[in-house]
Amino acid sequence: MGTYYGEPILWRCVDTDENGSLMLADKIITVKPMDAAGDYNTGSHSRDWSRRESSGSGYWADSNMRSWLNSEAKAGKVMWLCGNAPDKTHVQNGYNAYDQEAGFLTNFTVNELQVIKPVTQKSYLSRHDISQKTTG
């Protein structure tokens, strides 16, 4: 189901519960930073800005990774929920920038997208994020 850089993705069922099946890709398909460093401007970067200005945030709700994984946008058009794109100047040593890559879901057919079930993810929160709790 789905492809990445033209290669089909093989999925493995790793668990089944009341929410359905939890599927993980059989192999690592890419390595990307969860979040880019950024300026004191929007989203999670405005909380605890000194650390996040240099290394990004671990806050899932507005992370670059979540933005990319849930996007069907064309290359260079992904909406970054935190307001800071994962470009070469904002990821560690300029490696694995993905701001010009299409959203992950662009590689799935309409039928494949219809079988993906939205879930709520629980995350550990830093003291800066506790008051900002969201779902998704």
Task: Give the radius of gyration.
Answer: 16 Å
Question: Taking strands numbered 1, 2, ... along the chain, how are they ordered across the largest sheet?
Answer: 1-2
Mean pLDDT metric = 83
Query: How many helical stretches?
Result: 3
What's the N-to-C terminus distance? Answer: 22 Å
Helicity level, as a percent range?
A: 10-25%
Instruction: Report the principal-axis shape.
Output: globular
How are helices and strands ordered from N to C? Answer: EEEEHHH
Beta-strand content estimate: 5-15%
Structural class of the secondary structure composition? alpha+beta
Please provide the count of β strands.
Answer: 4
Main beta-sheet strand count, sense and barrel state: 2 strands, antiparallel
Spans of at least 5 consecutive residues with low confidence:
none
